[in-house]
Amino acid sequence: MPGKNQTVISRFILLGLPIPPEHQHLFYALFLAMYLTTVLGNLVIIVLIHLDSHLHTPMYLFLSNLSFTDLCFSTVTMPNFLQNMQSQVSSIPYAGCLAQMYFFLFFGDVESLLLVAMAYDRYVAICFPLHYTRIMSPNLCVSMVLLSWALTTLCAMLHTLLLTRLSFCKNNVIPHFFCDLSALLKLACSDIHINELMIMIIGALVVILPFLLIIVSYAHIVSSILKVPSTRGIHKVFSTCGSHLSVVSLFYGSVIVLYLCPSSNNSTVKDTVMSMMYTVVTPMLNPFIYSLRNRDMKEALKRVLQKKIKLSSNYGNYISDVFIK
Ligand SMILES: *[C@@H]1O[C@H](CO)[C@@H](O)[C@H](O)[C@H]1NC(C)=O
């Protein structure tokens, strides 16, 4: 509860990135291009997977979920950040800040849990290839997706509710480009011990535990390959797990560097650059990592485009028939 002699803060100021004014336009164009690439790349993946029936397998349905999450994850921060770069004073109302933080946590955690589901899918595909369709039933896949949404709703809600207990009195300047939980906690003028404790517990639950589960499933995959070493087996693992493994290392790499290796001298620049990494760069790269080296995706794109061309030429024939008659 704010005391009598304290002013209650109703807006926060987002400082954004420490970009010199003469480079402002260049960076604006760069971030706009990155955001548009993220939206377009992920939309293409979602549409492609839903249009092509060959891709209606658990792996690709999870990938489509991951693309949807990436799309939302960068939409939580990027449009607001781009708008703030254009305006002189970039303030955000208290409720807006809380909402941004909630959705940021929500989609970030969903991404983490989806990566576990995808690792489990690869584990079953490689270690139990004969039982794959029975184990990875549509029911199980839907339950895994629903469970990850339910869990992360709880976690994000808990963090947000705990934050509403705090009072902000003097400082309302956030040295970041979005309303980050840890940046907000630094501004609070009430006791934040419970918040920090919950960050550690929930962080362990939705970041460290998933990361360990992914490592365990890959350990199983590698040991099952080593039991029957063959170049075909190794090739298969690299082709189906390579993309997943790259996404996992990009995502957890930046999160772990950011939160588990706290900088000693409180360097906000390094923190901001690392959070740029997983809020902007990872969601942008995911579609490319998955589609560039993936033959199924390329063939699906070809099939869908061919169908489109056939449709439009049929439509053209129809139009000319109508006009000739
Ligand atoms: C997410 O995954 C579920 C289960 O595999 C699937 O039914 C659903 O269509 C997917 N959602 C999206 C947006 O791809």
From TrEMBL:
Residues 41-290 form the G-protein coupled receptors family 1 profile domain. Gene3D superfamilies: Rhodopsin 7-helix transmembrane proteins. Its main location: membrane. PROSITE patterns: G_PROTEIN_RECEP_F1_1 (PS00237), G_PROTEIN_RECEP_F1_2 (PS50262). It is a multi-pass membrane protein. One of its GO terms (molecular function) is olfactory receptor activity. The chain crosses the membrane at residues 26-48, 60-81, 101-120, 140-162, 197-216, 237-260, 272-292. It comes from the Eukaryota. GO terms for biological process: G protein-coupled receptor signaling pathway; sensory perception of smell; signal transduction. It holds the Pfam family 7tm_4. GO terms for cellular component: membrane; plasma membrane. SUPFAM superfamilies: Family A G protein-coupled receptor-like. It is found in: Cell membrane. Keywords: Cell membrane, G-protein coupled receptor, Membrane, Olfaction, Receptor, Sensory transduction, Transducer, Transmembrane, Transmembrane helix. Belongs to the G-protein coupled receptor 1 family. This is Olfactory receptor. The gene is Or1e17.
